Amino acid sequence: MDKLLNSLSPEKQQAMLVGPAIPPPHGVLPNYENPPNSRHVGWIVSLLGITLSTLSVSLRMYSKVVHRSYRTGEPTNIETQGCLTFIREYLLYLSTSTSGLL
Length: 102
Description:
With about 100 residues, this protein is mainly alpha-helical.
């Protein structure tokens, strides 16, 4: 391959090195500046995963904290209030931070 490349003139060598390796298929127009991608699918999957995991963890925490206090007859303590505040603040954070992604 080196012998073939060295046997060409410098202009042809440069054209060969700068150009594409193979031509695109018939009917396909290459777009190297802004190629198409499926980034929107990634955003949808990520947001769906964040939403489902947040809901499931929040419901699990809420049921553990609130129903434990009802079952044992204990009044809600500072730990319970802290967990519920965390859930509320985390959901508020997610709603404001992911609204700009779409």
